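Reviewers asked in the last cycle whether our approach scales beyond single polypeptides. To address this, we selected a multi-component target totalling 535 residues and predicted its structure end to end. The input consisted of the following lines:
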Amino acid sequence: MTFPRRAWLQGAGASVAALWLSGCDQIAENPQVVKALASAEVLNRRVQRLLGRGALAREFNRADITPNFKANGTVNPPDADYQAHAVENFANWRLVVDGLVERPLSLSLDEIKALPSRTQITRHDCVEGWSCIGEWTGARFGALMDLAGLKPEARHIVLYCADTLDGAKYYETLDVVDVHHPQTILAYAMNGAPLAVAHGAPLRLRAERYLGYKQAKYVMRLEAVDRYDHIAGGQGGFWEDQGYDRYGGI
Amino acid sequence: MSASVAQKVLVRRHSLAVRITHWINAISLALLLLSGLQIFNAHPQLYFGQQSNFGHSWLGMGAYGSADGLHGVTKLGSITFDTTGFLGASRENHTVVARGFPNWLTIPSARYLALGRRWHFFFAWVFAINGAIYMVSGLVGGHLKRDLAPTLEQLKPRHVLHEIWDHMRLRFPKGEEARRYNVLQKGAYLGVVALLLPVMILTGMTMSPSLDADFPWLLDLFGGRQSARSIHFITASLIVLFFFVHIVMVVLSGTWNNIRSMITGRYAIEVAPPPTLPEPIGDAP
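The resulting structure, written as structure tokens, was:
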């Protein structure tokens, strides 16, 4: 009888490898370990807020704008209410501003376009690792919030979006320290043209010191809150609920 | 002939600070590499410049399906290699899937960018703080100047060529010469400590949009965020290369002696007995 040495070695090798991987993964994915690792994210946010304060992200020239700006995540919301607005070219679409504000608002796109605006050519950094440079024009987030009058107890702004991705509604949270940063805008135009559906029409956030997943597209409602742990997965955003850091500055 | 027989003596080679920081550094770098490859896999393409020129990466991995299954390819410049099973496509739970580096080289093994980032940024802090402690103690305690900076004598071309020749014949310094690092060792260690590791930290920082706002000179230093990502990858590869050479040299020049010296601090060298010592009794006929 011949001993199937080759098959045995392959089997043994595969078992050792599987044991090694599952052992590593048990440590790598252990909830306690993951919680301990997340402490570094608090450190990142605190240190960078301390260092940066009002620092501006680099702005580029028109010549730097890419003709091939990648649209990621949702590129055409499947949601019926959104599609109805898109068919009407967002004529009856309104942005709701509520929560911890003195004057809840409901604004049309034209009213938003009448707010103090800013145009910036900036680099969009996806958490996956790629970057694209584009020009954004939008209403200053700070001016809009001043119009609504943020209450002192407000600590975050929740951005509720029209799109459903992987079965959940997209949303994001922005800290009040970023509300009045000059480069925090609600963009309605990209590269001089009205925002395309793939890039978040009619309105998307641009907060230029953060990664792409913070730049919520298809924004429908802004709610000022003092906490966000009761919303969706409780981590402060669609990707945050999947384990991504809420800070998103690195 | 006893007077010429070498004696083994243990000398103090590594300070406590060097030993502790060495091992913390080794563990951090291993975890940073494996979690870094997980992050790389999220977009296994590298570019130079401020942004990504899609379709024109200088290094990229991908997969395509054919009649005999999924093929992994790696593209370096205009040359394409079939790297099925390792890069571009590899086995995961009995099926071949599209992924940059294989699952035995990433933390965690499955595709999970969020968790890879958590591991990476935690150990980036461990690595940076440990490196800062090493640098400060090395400057204050004199380790960098005394042990790593080459002497003028060592830098003479004749001496350098001689040491390269000796290394090629696997002849390592003995006796008094073994008390200090040779010039090739000094060059390799200084290159890692003073160049490669700081470049890893700085290019890592350049990939952060927040830190780019705080320190815009980072973008100018490396030529943009995508250049920084490429340099981060290349520098990591050089550190992996250093690691393999380091391990080979440790083994060739005395595995246990080297490992002991990095744990207890004591390193055995062979020295001729001092001439003042009396001849051992009953040795000479």
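Strands of chain B lie at 7-12, 45-46, 59-66, 69-76, 79-82, 88-92, 95-99, 266-271. We regard this as preliminary and will revisit it once experimental data from Aim 1 are available.
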